[in-house]
Here is the input.
Amino acid sequence: MQKRVVITGAGVIGPIGKTASENWKNAISGICGIRRMTIVNPEDFTSQIAGEVKDFDPLDYLDRKVAKRTDRYTQFAMVAAREAFAESGIENNIDPTRLGVIIGSGIGGITTLEREHKVALERGVSRINPFFCPMMIGNIAAGRVGIDVGAKGLNFSTVTACASSGHAIAIAVDMIKLGRVDAILAGGSEAPLTLTGVGGFCQLKALSTRNDDPQTASRPFDRDRDGFVLSEGGAVIMLEELDHAVKRGAGIIAEVSGSGMTCDAFHITAPAENGEGSARAMKLAMQDAGIEPEDVGYINAHGTSTLLNDINETKAIITALGTAKAMRTPVSSTKSVTGHMLGAAGAIEAIFTAFALRDGILPPTATLQNPGEGCVLDYVPGEARKADIMYALSNSLGFGGHNVTIALKKYSGK
Here is the structure.
């Protein structure tokens, strides 16, 4: 009999809260975390708004030496992982060699990279921080989390742009089903609000320039959407083999019942025409979960607030579920309040989807007022909605043509 995998803990630090519960409360209340940028001088950019983690001081969470030797993206990962680890109650209830870590990031330690490059140019290469390399590399968040919680099982990172933490979760589930470990801390982290991070996306013409109205700048599926809003933060879940969780009396948030992973093989930034790759990922996730389109009660969309994503993801959902079913399936984008957390997006959205199953509440596309051309589905506009659902899907898409869909199931104790 195939092993089953459940979520026994969740941790989030992001633009709308510093804990998973605070993020969920604000997401279903439609409280937006997007403001004028303060981390970098906004005057330099065409897009001057972002989803920042407010009043973040790493010394509130980490030892001074550790804080000094970690990039902001690693700090977010450690904070989120600590919350998920503590909430799960798994400490002292698992063999450390059977606990793994997979943390994804699209960019990694770009804050450290920029700072030390400036040091090299202005003061010489001999003044580069000796910890530059282990602070900047994209796998170090996973390594640091492993050290922090004493996880001695498999440990690595996933790097697939905005699908990074979706892949982390999907691969973690497979590793547990294969029996490699009993539990894995899986998720993602990102801190892209730097000169080149923001500037690069601005030059790509990917970001919203609704600078005078940041609270409604992220408008997934809306006719007035003009790009996504860059955000930062970390999100991590504790994934655990069901029997292991039950035997130790763990609280279970939801079950991860399947996943689908595909590649568009089409374009470096644009999605495949009609969302072909995303549609296949959803179909594979349903197949892996052993469910039919009719069983899907909700989809948390990638929903970036860009012209190409929103219309193509809509087409993908229609293809995956069939027109009639798609038209009566609630779909929402929580990026309307969080903005786009890049490598952490898939994990925070999987957490929101798990909470939706647990609590019977669908988070809204809070800023949606007038659906755009071709955006024809039920996007749960404006306000959260009560709904007792059994299965849900969470989509993640990344530059390079990466697609991930996670299938989740309400846990009923069976």
In short: The chain has two domains: 5-247, 259-409.
